[in-house]
Amino acid sequence: MTKVESTQEPFSNKQLNILEALIPLVVLVALLIINVYVFGDDALSGSNQFVLLLGAAVAALVGFRNGVSYKSMIAEVADNFKSTTGAILILLMVGALAGTWLISGVIPAMIYYGLKILNPAIFLPATVIICAIISIATGSSWTTSATVGIALVGIGKALGIPMGMTAGAVISGAYFGDKMSPLSDTTNLASAMAGAELFTHIKYMSLTTVPSVVITIILFALLSFMQETTGSAETADMLMGIQASFNTTPLLFIVPIVVVLLIIKKTPPLVALLAGTLLGGLFALIFQTSIVAEVAGAETFDWQAGYKGVMNAITRDVAITTENEALNDLFSSGGMNGMLGTIWLIMCAMVFGGIMEAIGALARISSALLSMAKSVFGLFAATVASALSLNLTASDQYLSIVVTGKMFDKAYEEKGLAPENLSRTIEDSGTVTSVLIPWNTCGAYQSGVLGVGVAEYFVYAFFNWISPLMTLLFAAFGIKIKQLVHKD
User: Fold this and answer.
1) Of 183, 248, 374, 414, which sits 20 to 30 A from 219 (CA to CA)?
2) Tens of pLDDT along 448-478?
3) pTM > 0.85: yes or no
4) Looking at beta carbons, which pairs linking 41-44 to residues 24 or more positions away fall under 8 Å?
5) Per the structure, how many domains does the chain have?
6) Whole domain around residue 307: which residue ranges?
């Protein structure tokens, strides 16, 4: 994930007490529960966004009561919007990339060869491992989901595996790699905020992260063993349907390989995704002329149809009709337009998080958690609770890392604990749990890109909720708690 981070200290409002700080959060959670109960899966279509604005309004009222000006609240919201600029642009570019990768045959080719190679009995654990490797290489869970993640969800659906289950495997693997890669911005940010050396942080973090991913792979292996998948006859029909509609040449894999190589070379994600989008459009014009003409609404392929077809795929909803009914749901894309709902959600979440920060509620909640940390385990538990609460209230993974790191670094030092204890705990709780919250930027992104609601994949994102439990388990039993070494 790549975004402009905010390292500004959270505003401390001495007039605000903990009960007042919690009022907007309690109201928000209550309204979201009611909203999801009434609307179900349609809650993200707009009603959840308005609920976030209502929560922000409640926070503003609390702020007015404590002397915080409207101008300062709006300024903080504006800073939050600025911090999400990169994320919003990436979302738009991911939508564009998905569109050209569909009409070029890249995604259909991934599904085609995936159906031929991946055995249903090992599909889910293999998905975790594939996404982990790619995420370590790229340092980005977002890019992993937007490329191979989309294809793997499609393959899983074709095999008859629930989309939530496959999405959980994709996210588990992607976030393992995101945590452990030295190229990851969250890994670098967590170590910087805690004052830990990067590779010391990664090595120390592996103590909790490796057991978490091993348990995750075992759980998915058991799920694969128990899961009933479609028979070989139905899979054969799908393979024939893909071949009948697309030219499934292995040359199409040049496109994703180029994108992965660009990211490994530390090319900015926006540049890499733009390159992948344009390359996908070019390959569509070379290999899928009939598909491009169909998307353009033209009877024959010419330069105008080619231009219109590629632009439609980049910007609009497109669907490719095949001879196999089961494939038609797979071969559709919303383009950049399909990402607008997710962007809307992020913007409303930033309004809530910005006002909560402006009135001093985030600082008050964090300081209250810190005051309860009397023992070493209590300190670790308070850190986890702070990161989780910030993911819930600020709706932002980076703010969770930055604020938690700044709030707790002195406390860890005072208890004689090495800084990598803090950096590891932040990653085990702040980085990975952000994707489990629908209105958090990460949850909104992943559900939008994979086309699977957070409620569907929440239970199956084993790695993401095992990680904070693992770090608390290590703290409770005093396992590998590194002490601070003072140099003369």
Assistant:
1) 183
2) 889 898 989 999 999 999 999 999 999 999 8
3) no
4) 41/453, 41/455, 43/438, 44/341, 44/345, 44/438, 44/444, 44/447, 44/453
5) 1
6) 1-488
